[in-house]
Design brief:
- The complex is a heterodimer of chains A (405) and B (475).
- Chain A contains 22 helices and 8 strands.
- The model of chain A has no long low-confidence stretch (mean pLDDT 87).
- Chain B has 475 residues and is an alpha+beta fold.
- In chain B, helix 8 packs antiparallel against helix 13.
- The chains are: A alpha/beta (405), B alpha+beta (475).
Chain lengths: 405, 475
């Protein structure tokens, strides 16, 4: 797919994290569109050209500023799929196993729980060949507790919007507690929350790694869960998942028998912060805590979501301290931190130095960024907790059990 | 020294990664925002700092290899297209704001600092950098200095030249010199101002001390919709004639409106609007209120569809974003555009717009107009398809004719985009041989070997004008 509408204006350059890191024209969106057009007209762009294309984070920052809204991220992705290239291909197998199957997710959860023990951590670092150093570094960003805890059952809401909570794969395995908090917050906001057992990974990580083979199965399972639940909204706690599922329709042709179902599902998908703003949470007095917000790419650039999490946090009594370039990619970008460690590390460095010193927590709405930024802060010995917006909200609202119920 | 040797020397200075030689990478630097022509540089080198930059230039001088500096490559007259196999010195890595001197109110910046980033870093302190080219979200200060860039808000505050206090220059032989002064007086021989607008012909700027100014206490932006673009251009003259100098005065015609409304920053203008005029006034609050009401009263005498004052900062920003992405949004109407940058006296606006429309009809080219109406700086955007060679020819002719018209009306062939390689021929229409000779003398004094940005701006001689430089691929 080649877009004819690039007039070479260059307005995208400064938005591109890889251009910021390398300074190279071919590591900019304009350069990548040019490389793609060369490739499609039969020019051999060589190993270097391919590498610079593949360095794209798919952060979508350029798409947001392009006057002709050229979908550079999509174009690069489609190129990856069509040409079966890209270092991310190596991630396909583990991703399919650990995230796209229920058994895999269960095992991954177990692995994570083990890896929390000091002994296991130390053993892991004795065998550096087993686990790539970047994965080890990332593991230091893991939360202390991932499993859901027993909580008193809330009074069921009898009337109100039916909202399906989408569990996701990484959220479910690593940040299960956040999902639980989201569930209870939606409840407080007056929603009838359903959490179907039969739902699965959204497929974004696989798609971005260039794998489309099992996507259809994943989509079908999520469609069925949604339809059976009778929900009006699908609330999602991972920005990467909601962005991808809102665009499910691009994966299917309008002639496809499931196309209409896909469109209905995609239209119901919302980031949990948007659902909460729409339903409304009670306003709380200031709690004196200072929070700085990192805007996940797939919330800010792909969905234009910047205000909802801020509105909620302010409403819950937090003071917001803005960081510079809060919507510049932190380098996590799905599995990018494992496949492109060098650029990823540089971006993480920029992000960490942009995080203000005197704050109580960094807020964000995407698990990839959460792991990445937490690991980055740890490495520098900074003890600032990195929290999902939903978790910060839960801290504030957990006493307000039945605000509306 | 052989070919391989100087390349090795450059590699030793900047490191393997920052000397580009792969043909595909070199070709990606083939053109800037002006896409009618392209050429391959013999190398691209990315110095990290002033020391590396100086070493690179010295090395190129020793080998007598031509070179040119490039910022973000957003320039619109082909100034950054490498002729004579020039080596491109890409300054994207030199993007640091080194120091902000609040006492002297200057920001010391490397040339690769993005215009908008400078203002963004100053705004929390109540300051900004005033010149705001429409490409400000990407274009660099170094490029702004080279082109003496303007922008919508230069009507009141002046162009880049008025905002540069001091420059550090690497001359083509590698010597470094500081021009200008941080003090608020002009030196007797103003060499700094010679560099501003010299389009990379005299050397490479390695440090920029830019004036920073306080954000206006208050601002008011009025959007005026017209059913007739000529009526709108008369309104522009009337505003200036009344003695108001707005901070900005911008006009878009129907085709331009169509493009920006399909773009990312949609305002939602009502259907059938023939012109959008943005008028912005700023300053102390009482003054702004007074000017705003004066402008509204003036505009009421014209036949307008709607006069709307921005009710919030967000609304104002949307209007400006909508306007500033007009060039890029042309991609939604046609595969390519060719923008002209002629200037005319304000009073001639209605007349000039009519003529542009006639020229478009004559050559069968669609032309969108979006321009700095306040200072008569036109930006007719000629839409074309580069796969149609005939059309490309017609676009060139139509563009040329528009510039002749500007001169005939008492204007200039360029306001802010520069001459580059695009308007070398047209320059001779505007400037006498003696004036061009004088500029050659200056060029030779700074760059006797003719290495800095070769074959740009100044025509070589009357006989050479008809031919294009031989190493340029006309596309």
């Amino acid at each position: 797919m080649i877009d004819e509408s690039c007039v070479h204006c260059g307005l995208c350059l400064s938005s591109c994290p890889t251009y910021l890191v390398t300074g190279l024209e071919t590591e900019s969106p304009r350069g990548r569109v040019w490389l793609l057009s060369q490739h499609s007209s039969g020019v051999d762009i060589g190993h270097t050209g391919l590498k610079h294309l593949d360095d794209c984070l798919d952060c979508r920052a350029c798409e947001e500023v392009c006057p002709a809204h050229i979908p550079v991220g999509h174009m690069v992705n489609q190129f990856r799929i069509a040409s079966s290239t890209g270092v991310a291909r190596s991630m396909v197998k583990p991703l399919r196993y650990f995230f796209a199957t229920r058994r895999g997710r269960r095992r991954f959860k177990r692995l994570l729980n083990w890896s929390r023990y000091r002994v296991v951590k130390r053993t892991m670092s004795w065998f550096p060949g087993w686990i790539p150093p970047d994965a080890l570094a990332l593991a230091s960003g893991l939360p202390q507790q991932t499993v859901e805890t027993a909580r008193p059952v809330m009074d069921p809401v009898k009337e109100g919007r039916v909202v399906m909570l989408f569990k996701g794969c990484v959220m479910d395995t690593v940040y299960g507690k956040t999902n639980q908090n989201a569930h209870d917050l939606l409840h407080i906001a007056g929603a009838r929350v359903v959490k179907p057992e039969l739902q699965t990974c959204c497929g974004a990580l696989l798609y971005h790694s260039g794998d489309t083979e099992i996507l259809r199965d994943l989509v079908l399972e999520n469609l069925a869960a949604f339809e059976e639940s009778g929900s009006e909204d699908v609330a999602v706690t991972a920005g990467g998942c909601s962005a991808f599922m809102k665009e499910y329709r691009h994966l299917f042709s309008p002639e496809d028998p499931i196309y209409d179902r896909v469109v209905r599902f995609a239209e119901a998908v919302k980031d949990v912060s948007d659902v909460l703003v729409q339903l409304g949470l009670p306003l709380l007095p200031s709690n004196g805590q200072r929070i700085s917000m990192h805007d996940a790419c797939h919330l800010a650039h792909a969905q234009g979501i910047r205000q909802s999490p801020r509105t909620l946090l302010r409403g819950a009594g937090y003071d917001l301290v803005e960081m510079p370039d809060s919507d510049r990619c932190c380098g996590a970008a799905g599995t990018y931190n494992l496949t492109h460690p060098e650029i990823s590390r540089t971006l993480l460095g920029y992000k960490i130095s942009d995080i203000p010193q005197d704050i109580d927590a960094v807020a964000l709405g995407n698990p990839g960024c959460q792991l990445q930024i937490a690991a980055g802060l740890n490495k520098q010995g900074r003890r600032v907790p990195v929290r999902h917006t939903v978790d910060l909200l839960w801290d504030a609202y957990q006493g307000v059990n039945d605000g509306r119920g | 020294m052989g070919e391989a040797k100087w390349r090795q020397e450059l590699r030793d200075i900047v490191g393997d990664r920052y000397l580009l030689e792969d043909p595909i990478l070199l070709d990606s630097y083939g053109s800037d925002g002006y896409t009618l022509e392209k050429a391959r540089p013999s190398a691209v080198v990315l110095p990290a700092d002033r020391e590396q930059l100086q070493a690179v230039v010295s090395q190129l001088f020793r080998e007598r290899i031509p070179f040119l500096a490039r910022g973000a490559g957003t320039s619109l007259s082909g100034g950054a297209i490498p002729l004579d196999g020039a080596v491109i010195v890409h300054l994207s890595r030199m993007h640091h704001i080194r120091n902000i001197d609040w006492y002297n109110r200057v920001a010391y910046c490397e040339p690769g600092v993005v215009n908008r980033k400078l203002s963004e870093s100053l705004e929390p302190f109540g300051y900004y950098y005033a010149p705001d080219p429409s490409s400000q979200q990407s274009c660099t200060l170094g490029g702004n200095v080279a082109e003496n860039s303007g922008g919508p808000h230069c009507l009141k505050f002046g162009v880049t030249l008025n905002h540069i206090k001091q420059l550090e220059v690497v001359w083509p032989n590698g010597d470094v010199e500081l021009l200008g002064s941080l003090a608020d007086f002009a030196s007797p021989v103003d060499l700094k101002s010679l560099m501003v607008g010299s389009e990379g012909m005299l050397g490479i700027v390695s440090g920029i001390w830019a004036r920073i100014v306080e954000l206006p206490q208050s601002r008011s932006t009025t959007m005026v919709l017209f059913d007739d673009v000529y009526e709108a251009s008369q309104a522009v003259s009337a505003i200036i004639a009344a003695g108001v100098i707005p901070a900005a005065l911008e006009l878009m015609d129907p085709l331009a409106i169509e493009a920006v409304e399909r773009g990312v920053y949609r305002v939602g203008y009502p259907a059938g609007v023939a012109a959008v005029l943005l008028v912005e006034v700023d300053g102390p609050a009482p003054e702004v209120r007074e000017e705003e009401s004066l402008i509204t009263r003036l505009l009421e005498k014209f036949s307008t569809r709607e006069i709307r004052v921005a009710s919030s900062a967000a609304e104002r920003e949307l209007w400006w974003a909508n306007r500033k992405t007009a060039f890029g949004a042309m991609g939604l109407l046609a595969p390519r555009y060719y923008v002209q940058d002629g200037v005319i006296p304000r009073s001639q606006l209605p007349h000039a717009l009519r003529q542009i429309s006639e020229i478009g009809d004559h050559y069968g080219i669609r032309i969108a107009n979006v321009f700095h109406a306040g200072d008569g700086n036109l930006h007719p955007l000629l839409l074309y398809d580069d796969r149609d060679e005939q059309m490309v020819q017609r676009v060139r002719q139509a563009g040329s004719e528009i510039l002749r018209m500007c001169l005939a009306l008492g204007g200039s062939i360029t306001g802010e985009h520069g001459v580059g390689l695009e308007k070398m021929e047209e320059l001779t229409w505007q400037m006498s041989p003696a004036v061009i000779q004088a500029q050659w003398a200056l060029k030779n004094a700074c760059d006797p070997e003719g290495l800095a940005n070769p074959k740009k701006v100044l025509p070589i001689g009357p006989t050479c004008l008809a031919e294009s430089p031989s190493d340029v691929t006309r596309v």
